[in-house]
Amino acid sequence: MMIREGQLSITLYLCAVLASAATMPQSLSAQNVAGKPGDSGRTWQAVAPGVVEPRSGEIKIAAPVIGRISEVFVRANDRVLADEPLVRLDDEDAQARVASAQAQVAMRERARNEKSAGKSANRRNAEDALADAETALADARNAFDKAVRAKRAGSGSDATVNATHTAWMGAQDNLERQRSQLRRIQAQSGTPLPTQVEGQLNVARGDLRVAVAELEKLTIRAPIASTILRVDVKAGELAAPSSPQPLLLLGDLSRLRVRAELDEHNIGKIKVGDTATVRTDAFRGQTFAGKITAIAPLIRPARLNSPASRNLSDFSVTEILIDLIDPGPLVAGIDLIDPGPLVAGMSVDVYFGSDR
Questions:
Q1: Nearest-CA neighbor of 60 among 280, 232, 236?
Q2: DSSP 143-195
Q3: Contact 275/45 with Cβ under 8 angstroms?
Q4: What is the pLDDT of residues 112-171, one digit of tens each?
Q5: Where are the beta strands (DSSP E) in the chain?
């Protein structure tokens, strides 16, 4: 059957329109439904593209000083405790400085002990107690690091790791108590000033503290209990604080949130505490509950929309943080599921202000 030229042109035009609609980016099509009736008779007051992230945000770990990577203790998807070692920089020179400082302290202690304490006995005992507490703290920290490495190697246990971490925290508390005790004694009237040999010992102990602190800088630790999201370094590479690429990326995945970009014209339609609904193409037909926890007091160019959907310089947005929550009375009447399936980095659409 012959097809007329006019009919063929109309057919080709309709095919092009349908293909364009099918390939329209999700973020743009979501923006177009704001203010229109949604499913189940709801009306969305505003819609914004967003991305799922850890409730803690993405924490970038950088090197505190310039150094060569000696060991990387973790891999992507590892769960770590607060204070757990992640990366160690080359510390051979720092270890040598600590050993030298310890030798000086031992020599000065022998020289001081040859002299009678006299009226300085209380102060001397407090200084010794503080030095012992510092040594105990270093030993407890090393025990914790050893327990963590043993666990990752398969020869340790969670119980040992937890016990050594508790002991480390206890050693820190004891150190603070000893510092306070020494300050009280030094402030008491009648406490004599240090003699020459006592002063030399105090200087040597101060040098040891500096050497230990410099050594500790070379072990990079987790700031919070979290999950390793990405590792961008390996042993042998040079690390520097000024590097634009972080060594590791981590975040607390125990709870998730969404960082959304709302068109500036819709700011007046939402407020902190409002509920929101989150959807993603990865889980079609499923809906996730959220609650607005922060609205940035700043308008800036959009970043999340694809350049294929619109020119990013054509519109400005404000950043919205939405904590994902479990289904409950807060969103009664809406069929929601646990936010567990969502993954950090996933693109989503956030629907605000649903009215019946």
A1: 232
A2: HHHHHHHHHHTTS--HHHHHHHHHHHHHHHHHHHHHHHHHHHHHHSTTPPPP-
A3: no
A4: 999 998 888 999 999 999 999 999 999 999 999 999 999 998 898 999 999 999 999 999
A5: 43-54, 59-61, 67-72, 79-80, 85-89, 219-221, 226-231, 238-239, 248-251, 256-263, 275-279, 288-295, 300-301, 316-325, 347-355
Q: Report how far residue 5's alpha carbon sits from residue 7's, in angstroms, rounded to the nearest whole number.
A: 6
Tokens linked to 259: 């960082």
The separation between CA 337 and the C-alpha centre of its own chain, rounded to angstroms, equals: 27
**Cβ 230 vs Cβ 248: under 8 Å:** yes
In this structure, the number of other CB atoms found within 10 A of the CB of residue 100 comes to: 13
Residue type, 181: Q
Tell me the whole-structure pTM to 2 decimals: 0.73
Write the pLDDT tens digit of every residue in 207-235.
Answer: 999 999 999 999 999 999 999 999 999 99
CA 333, CA 330: separation in Å to the nearest integer?
Answer: 9
> What is the edge-to-edge ordering of all strands in the sheet holding 226-231?
59-61, 248-251, 226-231, 79-80
User: What are the backbone dihedrals phi and psi of residue 345, each rounded to the nearest 5 degrees, phi first?
Assistant: 95, -10
Both tokens of 337, joined, read 């599921």
